[in-house]
């Protein structure tokens, strides 16, 4: 592959910022029917030098230039051959002629909290991108390919910040980003193998309630958002039944839709005998969460309840919450084909924090919430040893995946 590298380390000019480019692959296998078919991270990293500077740089792969090249490996030898070169750029001529401006140190966005800013890697720019469609069309199942960074000179740069001076004239000498970074993948026909469904979690039985602790139950309901809708409205009603006549205040984390709710699909144990009694298996959820896990813990005053995380109930009262859910249950396509019967259920949970009294009674109560905002109360630990409040599993709601989700199998 060295013959395709245009710029190497020994071409670097003195008195220029030292930069290297790295390619971080997501998978060594590209499946022809997966969407997106392949993606990876382009990382531009500053080496050693701490002096502030800016540059104009575009991370996009353009098959019409020499910066990134696609190499095909011969199945019979160690030879590689460049393919996929295009005469004309895939980008519209209406796009700006100059690439975007980037700065080193790479400062985090202003909305990051202070702790996250402290942990931010200011020496690296990360960009997630994909293999160009024109290259995808050239790939053959069973063959191996490499995407290679050949190197580039960056003429538009300068010391300092863009606010101080941002010239549109090239600067000499240019910054050199040496070539050599690459990742190799093999093309396979079909979809990525289906991940086996996890064991269906046993629902929490009412007998698991702790004697003397507050008695809560959850009622679940769902309805389509409209005729032939792709979305469902999910609603829960949490009711406090006693046994004490005193009110309780609790953290509502246990009832988050991201936690103790499960989607199941109906399956027949013996596929050759459709009359066999159907069973239900847990579906694999395909949605991903993007949160700032490195945020610091937060102190929350229960009475102030600024984020609506706490609720107070008297015996006989209910707390309600609702959200929308895709009619495919947010499941992987293999689990939720059109016509598939799905069911949804709260499988049960234990309150992470609760206490007797109303929110007004807790004007001086402060608890600690982990920085993600999606985890249970961290302090007081073990809820100050109060009895565990166990909420048993709810009723079950069922529906059929509509035909509009047939597009996933085109």
Automatic annotation (TrEMBL):
It comes from the Eukaryota. Residues 195-205 have a biased composition (Pro residues). Residues 191-211 are annotated as: Disordered. This is Uncharacterized protein.
